Amino acid sequence: MPRIIVNAAVGAVLCSLFVTTSPSCATETCFFTQISAGQGDTCGLRGDGSIECWGADSQGRLVPPPGVFTQVSASTHACGVRQDGSVACWGYDASGQSTPPKGQFRQVATGSDHTCGLRNDGGVVCWGNQSYGQSATPDGTFTQVTAGAYHTCGLREDGSVACWGDSDYGQSTPPNGMFTQVAAGAFHTCGVRDDGSVTCWGYDGYGQSTPPEEPFIRVSAGRWHTCGMRQDASLACWGNDFFGESTPPDGAFTQVTAGSSHTCGLRRDGSLACWGDNWNGQSMTPLEPYTQVSVGSDYTCDLRQDGKITCWGDDDEGQSTPPDGTFTQVSAGDTHTCALRDDGSAACWGSNEGIFGDFGGQSTPPTGTFTQVSANGLHSCGVRQDGGVECWGDNFFGESTPPDGTFTQVSSGTEHTCGLQQDGSLACWGNDFYGESTPPAGVFTQVTAGTRHTCGLRSDGAALCWGNNDHGQSTPPTGVFTQVTAGTDYTCGLRNDGAVSCWGDNRYGQSEPPRGPFTEVSAGIERTCGLRPDGSVVCWGDRALVISVCAEAQSCGDAIINGAEQCDDGDTLYSFGDYCGSNCSCVPCGQPTAPEAPETDGPTASDALFTLKAAVGSTTCDVRVCDVNSSATVTVTDALAILRTAVGQPLELNCPN
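Structure (tokenized):
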């Protein structure tokens, strides 16, 4: 049966493999000279010519090669122009987009799966995907090149614009006139005319091609939004603003770059400001090293060296919006976060809702001073200065009713809590359905409570786990560990040599850590993060979506998100673009009807995902099937292209022989 591994953000679904933030820097590397916002990631050129990238990483697109560069461009892959004029690319290379030709270039531009470079003689050369003609460059001399999703545009010496490639929305049909700069977005293009006015052409479903009537110096086109720098160096953005990507901060800037759903600007002092989607950490500014990392359900929080907290990921309940102030510890839970302030008081933010939808109180800590706090599920706990444990929030399973005693550490699980007592013994309370609250006897140095299992670190460094073991999460390997962390259905441990080992569920790659060394590790639901000795944070896992297609599919087929997920009881379900048909049965072309079309003509993630599922509804990868939006037919390649553009992230299609 065909299987698709989708490394993409569909709706609110994150699909990153690694997230990297930066350590501290020396004087010449503490500022940026150029910035490029990609599809879930950001790359910047530092003052010393080195490149740094952060955000969502797949295929190594956050790992630029060493060397001195003069320019960088980020997308699903990244490329940079070296000081000697050669181009180096890294990241996705399925279409050859990261395999540049030899020669000297003065500028490079990355599209979804193609790349174009401007040679020193003004000629343009492109490499990578050619399915829409986006890499078939015209003759002539250019002064600038810009690559969109599946089209490319260049600014000729005479100021006219030439575009080539996909033009379904007119994005490759530029108007006449003289321009000083051009920027290609996903399905639209914008240019700055010689009088400073901005003209856009192509898809305008979110208003991204309707610029304000005022003069600009330069413009940058993203996926569904566009930003421009005014003549007074202030910024203006228009188009989609779902993540706040079109709401720039005040101030004077020297550059602006629009990514898929986030935007970054370079201030006059070389400092960086980013806004918009921060699910992958792409809108974080990498300046301070980190001293601690804590992974929650669908978000992550870091404690910086200066005591400030930064969070990225899901923020529906405000769990990724920390308060001002300086802190000494942070703990990310399910939909709320708690941290310990400098004065020992506890601060919590995020959801305060209980198990029955009433007031839970998990984000309302008591007054007083603590030495440690732990947030998870719908409750929080802290160790007081006198060693007593106090918990607040939901107490349906007794998880917020700690026993008396003197404790040195506490760990909140989803529905249970465990604490390390002063004599090294463990005490657990709350739900014990799987035995997660029945710790073994012995002397321990640390305890960690997961969703339905618990692990502890013995005095000899051995890891011991108990409770649910349906994924092997309670069967640790042998060896000496210095720290252990329990996630949902998996566990990770930090070995004494700095290497990380994980065991249990690995459907999302959360149990496949990169090479060390690390100084700390934190396990969540589907993502794990580790702190390196230099203060940088590296994360792995998250949702690599698996779409399973009905085995008996004919020319069209129903599909479901995640191999382990079952279709509902005969109902049609659209959630984050996924579709479940009645009993997962297969249907003729055109049935069931696709989701109601949006007011605009542009492809949505839901529509594109539906199209892709229909296209793979066969045991081969080359079947032609009905398009959900018309009577035309689409190939799997076309459907992948539609979805890739709609979600703004790379896709990989794996079909068996």
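DSSP finds two helices and 51 strands in the chain. Confidence is low (pLDDT under 50) at residues 1-27, 543-611, 613-634, 649-657.
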